[in-house]
Amino acid sequence: MTLLRLTDRGLYCEAGDFFVDPWAPVDRAVVTHAHGDHATWGCRSYLTSAPGRGVLSLRLGPDASITSLPFGEPTLLQGVRVSLHPAGHILGSAQVRIEAAGEVWVVSGDYKTEPDPTCTPFEPVRCHTFVTESTFGLPVYRWPPQSDTFAEINAWWRANAAAGKTSLLYGYALGKAQRLIAGLDHSIGPILTHGAVERMTAAYRDAGVSLPPTTHALLVTRKADRQGAIVVAPPSAEGSTWARRFGPSSNAFASGWMRVRGARRRRALDRGFPLSDHVDWPALLAAIEATGAEHVWVTHGFTAVVTRWLQERGFDARAVATRFEGERDDVPAAEAAAEDATPA
Ligand SMILES: [Zn+2]
User: Fold this and answer.
1) Neighbour count for residue 329 (Cβ, 10 Å)
2) Is the pLDDT reported for residue 157 higher than 50?
3) Mean pLDDT, to the nearest integer, of 42-71?
4) Using 50, 70 and 90 to split pLDDT, how confident is the model at 262?
5) Residue 97: beta bridge partners?
6) How far is the CA of 3 from the centre of ligand 1 (A)?
7) What spacing in Å lies between the alpha carbon of 89 and ligand 1's midpoint?
8) Residue 224 confidence (pLDDT)
9) Contact by Cβ (8 Å): 38, 109
10) At what angle do helices 333-341 and 195-206 cross, to 10 degrees?
11) Ligand 1: distance of its center to the CA of 264 in Å?
12) How does the average pLDDT of the chain come out, rounded?
């Protein structure tokens, strides 16, 4: 039984009359998480996980009609049983489990299986058909232990502080920034934030995530109070007037893309830290195996490579198109410009 089909607005469940992560406005959207390539504006109603409600509401605005569901608790949409299960990607990120007539489908959204203190850990869900992301679905992507990466980040910050430089650390404002903040050793110096990061960080704290103290960088006006600081900002702030206000600095970007030679050189960065909120190649394959699924739909990323690899191993695999490929910078241009224009 086909529980989902691809339409021009995204994955649609006809039996339950809902879309999963549609990319155009629909009546009922089940949303895996609040990143822009999964949560689209203008839907009549949204269903998301209880821990993800705050960040989704921040993204969509106060007028969005959002219903939330605790992880693991089923609801019926026109007789189709829908439940949400942790995806371990960012706060509230969920896999959508859809069951009707004994058939089970799971849509992963973005996910990672590594532990992350800022969100509920990924949970494998058994199903017949698994719709998986493949953002880093190439054998070249293998993440080093995150403890090593955080040790490098803190050593870099400590060295910059000793040299009288500000550390500018770039990462997506929702999810990556909070995971970075959680791993920073705040005995080194103050942790300052870009406004977009500070807003999301406040939503994390509201949801009960414990994080070291942060201050919106624009509220710290005295140079002396910025001594030895690290500033966590979205990638869009790199090279901006906003970034230049911090004086002598060292710049780094934290992303899975830093695993590839050249990615750092294309941006004017001193350092690149390979920290991703997606599964790497071995974790992707292990996660697919753990579902026990016979049918796999591969989306969001290196779909052709992953599909071929699965087919060669006996899976019934197919690539499914998406409107967006990979992660995009996640701060709306207007918001970035407003912060940039604030006088130093
Ligand atoms: Zn995402």
Assistant:
1) 16
2) yes
3) 97
4) low
5) 83, 106
6) 23
7) 7
8) 87
9) yes
10) 110
11) 21
12) 92
